[in-house]
Amino acid sequence: MVMKRRQLLGGFAVVTGSTALGLIGFLGRNSQTEAGTAFEIVRSDEEWRRRLASAQYRVLREHGTERAGSSPLDREKRPGTFHCAGCDLALFSSDTKFDSGTGWPSFWAPLDNAIGTSEDHTLFVRRTEVHCRRCGGHLGHVFEDGPKPTGLRYCINGVALSFVPAAAAGRAS
After folding, report:
1. How far apart, in whole angstroms, are the C-alpha atoms of residue 152 and residue 109?
2. Quick one: three-class SS letters along the chain?
3. Has residue 125 got a pLDDT over 90?
């Protein structure tokens, strides 16, 4: 049986298309859900879309990244606490915030029992993804190039956070 050129090209297109779709699925997958992690707050995709602004949804639920320098929280210097924009869990204290020069809010340590991590293999690079331990929302990544005392840099998307100034936090207690 002789394979015609059209059949060969058609077969090649099917294989290439299938590979591309598989790669897109791999790059866009939600590592927490696939790892079988159960979170305290679970909502349907539709509920998350209703609760979050589109930029928040893209980062927190689809593992997106905001443009560097676009978040006012990168320049936030007041004492207070940074919370998850998805579920309002307190994540980082302003005491651990530093200017990394990257264009994203950066911290050298999270609050106790605030975050979870997982391996992120997107973009063909091995990184450590940081997510909210309560709702699973994607926050950013942690790198080993931060300041003392931890040497870590939690590089967090500002749109995934809300800020509660210390004075406001004190009144709420």
Report:
1. 7
2. CCCCHHHHHHHHHHHHHHHHHHHHHHHHCCHHHHCCCCCCCCCCHHHHHHHCCHHHHHHHCCCCCCCCCCCHHHHCCCCEEEEECCCCCEEEEHHHEECCCCCCCEECCCCCCCEEEEEECHHHCCEEEEEECCCCCEEEEEECCCCCCCCCEEEECHHHEEEEEHHHHHHHC
3. no
Q: Which two tokens stand for residue 168?
A: 């406001």
* Domain of residue 131, residue span: 5-172
Bridge partner list, 163: 82
Catalytic positions are 155
The residue length of the chain stands at: 173
pTM for the model:
0.76
Strand partners, 97: 107
CATH number at residue 33: 2.170.150.20
Tokens representing residue 148 in the block? 């003392």
Residue 88, by phi and psi: left (phi above 0), alpha (psi -120 to 50) or beta?
left
Q: How many domains does the chain have?
A: 1
Residue 109 pLDDT greater than 70, yes or no: yes
